[in-house]
Records
---
Amino acid sequence: MNNDSSETATQGDSPPSPRWLVLIHQVPPKPDYLRVKVRRRLRRVGARPLKNSVYVLPHSDEALEDFQWLAREIVTDGGTALVCEAVFIEGITNAELDAMFQPTQPAGPGPAAGEASWHGRTWVTRQGVKIDRMACAWLIRRFIDPAARFKFVAPRGYQRAGDEVRFDMFEAEFTHEGPHCTFETLLERFSLRDRALRAIGEIVHDIDCKDEKFERAEAAGLALLVDGIARAHAEDAVRIERGGAVFDDLYAHFEARP
């Protein structure tokens, strides 16, 4: 009796509802703008990358429509695309997937990003600053903490003290997160939605992460400027001042564009 009842209940259970939508796609290598267009659309709909050509969204009618429209565009442009529903995804847990779609919170103790208590802090990073740390120092002083003081330390042996805030270094409060460089992490944590800052973030990402994710044409030129600053000036404080002037001008350029 018990076995029969158990078996009947099992057979009567409905299959679990799909929790995730997965887009698996491939676009032709040329023209280059196709990859850029697809990446921008994926960011716009909030999809998260699992691999280079695999993206995921929580299951919903709206998300399904977004993926279906994008898949149709990819196929029309000569690529291939497949939209799948999944209850779970091999190699990553549902909890890990859920976390990818949660708002990022500051790591470690301290007030939430954007609060006044971040002002007047000592911001610590590794010695030998280059593109990401130069850009972050400019962003911090220009948009987050105008009274910021910067401290440059050896990558090994440093111990955090007092109200110091670490960026772009091991166990930092602000550093690379997932596919994001530290500049992008700061934009996200402090809710800086400025389109000019977003453009600069894409350029910094392409230079720092070397993955050509955004394929920004400006990346090569800015990389040369930053390399020149680093070669001409050994002092990190001088590097961020010189870099700050470059980013001021770059920001003015993007701010003025329609």
---
Amino acid sequence: MKKRVVVTGMEITSSIGTGLETFWDAAVKGLCGIKSIASYDPTPYTTRIAGEIKDLSLTDLPEFNKAKRFPRVAQYALYCAHHAIRRAGLTSHELSTAGTYIGTSLGGGPELESAYKSFYTENWRKIPALTVIRGMPNSIANHIAIAFGIGGPNSTVSNACVSSIEAIGNAYQQILHGNLSVALCGGTESLVWETIMAAWCKLRVMSTNNENPEKSSRPFEKNRDGMVMADGAGILILEEFEHAKARGDNLC
């Protein structure tokens, strides 16, 4: 018999705000997070706008007292995982058998780039020791599982723009068919860094509406001029309905 799957926790970070309440309030008001890029000098490039995250910090979260060891893309996901788990009210025992399903396209690209730069311009001994575990796309799900003691299946989907929805779908299927009772799932992306943005500029598919960044994202408009990049992450806690009901959860 197929199981009923419910959402018992969630969290988001995006260019229009970090945290469910902040994000939703901005979305309802129609606020736009697309601005001129501040994290590097964009003036040489055809596209100089993107959605950057500016209000996220891990400093107040006890699991991450060494936040710099995590790649930026993992920091987004770890923040969301922390708050989604809290909203769901899951115990360490319940997490010990839960699954982790994360979608990401490029993973820790900036961290790998930094290592390549050290290799080609200095000496291989200058490569940071944690480059491998910071750079691999699957390391995000691993960081989450380690940080929160999530002991069930651990899976990463890297399939371009559908990575996150596939990860959520995979988690849903596992609970639907009775293989899991709880799963943490979602996606995270860190694309606003100079090299990859320059590569997208060369592809000539991004908006160049640099003078009016808040009007640059127009996917369904006749006069649209291209896509817009942005960083962000979103995490859901999926749970089998009877399992959630038995522990008295207030379903999202």
---
Amino acid sequence: MSFPTILRATAALALLASMAPSQAAAPMVKTQAPGFYRMMLGDFEVTALSDGSVALPMVKLLNEKAADSEKALAKAYLKEPFDTSVNAYLVNTGTKLVLIDTGAAGLFGPTLGKLQASLKAAGYAPEQVDEVYITHMHGDHIGGLMAGDKLAFPNAVVRADQHDADYWLSQAKMDAAPAEGKGGFQGAMASINPYVKAGKFQPFEGDTELVPGVRAKVSHGHTPGHSFYVVESKGQKLVLWGDLMHVAAVQFLNPAVTIQFDSDNKAAAAQRKAAYAEAAKEGYWVGVAHISFPGLGHLRANGKGYDWVPVNYSAQP
């Protein structure tokens, strides 16, 4: 074949290629994978589980001047409403499988309720959970106790502070609550009472060791019975804070800022200041329900505020 013939053939092929219909672009998936993150704490395996995230108008909810909150959020490249993580934590002690908080299921809107999928993706089944510890009885922490009309964790004992049980499971207190506040009581009763009926709810009072290596620590303020859970193994320590705080960009900068979800603002602020100072001084791990998933990290003092140092991602637990 002569060179001019090759050129003509090449040009013809190029023309045909240009006339051929282009392949359609791949459609966008627009979903995240089920969320879990695993780390070792001494001999214990800790798995952070995502229940999803929910967009909240934090500037309106925080008890701070709107301009100050907006400035702090802007510094973190955020503006309201922004997606707020809802995290739970699974602790495998080697003898017990303990879940701290359960996510919202259907109690907090359609973007949450992903804890069961995250748990299964992490390699566990709900039937394997031995104990469920509740930091407090707000809907985004207890809703996942139920799967429809069934116990989501049929083999587990559920534990929470007696003060929260006395408050949120009280018919009299629900009757006395304003109309907009009754839903919180209804959600708590719908989530906890089936375990009460099954003989699987065991409230505790005060600082209590629940299983070896895991103990409850009083942190009343956000709710009447809000509790931390302290996990310790081989000299390593993790404190799970529940709803000690909600907005990292604001409340690490100014620990005095409270939120409308707090039942006792003064007590909640005092608990937060003390917990921040202790975590920064001692350097232990903390896990937080509403810090960006997985919500695990350390605190470092910075003037009158604190820096959040998130866990360094590792593909190896």
